[in-house]
Design brief:
Blueprint (H helix, E strand, L loop, with lengths): L8 E18 L7 E8 L16 E8 L12 E15 L5 E2 L3 E3 L3 E9 L1 E5 L4 E4 L4 H11 L6 E5 L1 E10 L1 H6 L2
Parallel strand pairs: 3-6
Antiparallel strand pairs: 1-2, 1-4, 2-3, 4-10, 4-11, 5-7, 7-8, 7-10, 8-9
Length: 177
């Protein structure tokens, strides 16, 4: 079992999703927040629909709902929103992009490919994160200290929030761009 990644370069990435709500759960510890589990197409460039019988066509995303949508949305409805993924990066030895399993959730270990050319982008497969720096000198120093360069790989123990914008019938969610 790898040790948790608690420090390093910090990132935050947001990406749009449309999918079916599988679970809506009130936090059993604090009763002040909730969690949502939504199933989305693995490759949204091919469309938001997926085949529920083909596990390779979708991924489940489970995350904290900071906007209290969990109080209104019901399991079985389709929803549109965005996922915010965040965490710390650590350079690792790898040869491929990896997601620890079929569920993207807080604490999941992700491995992404790093591309450096004017910008610094980490491709995690399901989403990409871009790192921002104050200036070129700061970027060069931070990347050197972290041992990150073009073509290397970074791992993160990702944190996940799901912010729903609207929900309803499948046709109404998928029809609107």
């Amino acid at each position: 079992m790898p040790r948790p990644i608690k420090s390093g370069l910090e990132f935050e990435a947001a990406f749009p999703v449309k999918g079916r709500v599988l679970e809506v759960i009130l936090c059993p510890d604090c009763e002040a927040e909730g969690y949502i589990r939504i199933r989305v197409a693995k490759d949204p460039k091919k469309g938001w629909s997926y085949d529920a019988k083909d596990a390779k066509s979708f991924v489940d995303i489970y995350g904290l709902d900071p906007r209290d949508s969990y109080l209104k949305v019901r399991a079985g409805e389709w929803a549109e929103g965005r996922v915010v993924a965040f965490g710390y990066l650590k350079r690792v030895r790898s040869r491929r992009i990896e997601m620890g399993g079929p569920v993207l959730q807080s604490g999941a270990r992700l491995v992404g490919a790093i591309h450096v050319d004017g910008t610094v982008e980490i491709d995690f497969g399901l989403f990409q994160a871009r790192l921002a720096f104050e200036d070129e000198e700061q970027r060069r120093k931070i990347l050197k200290d972290a041992g990150i360069k073009d073509g290397s790989y970074a791992a993160t123990d990702v944190g996940v929030d799901i912010e729903l914008k609207r929900w309803g019938a499948k046709d109404s969610i998928l029809r609107r761009s």
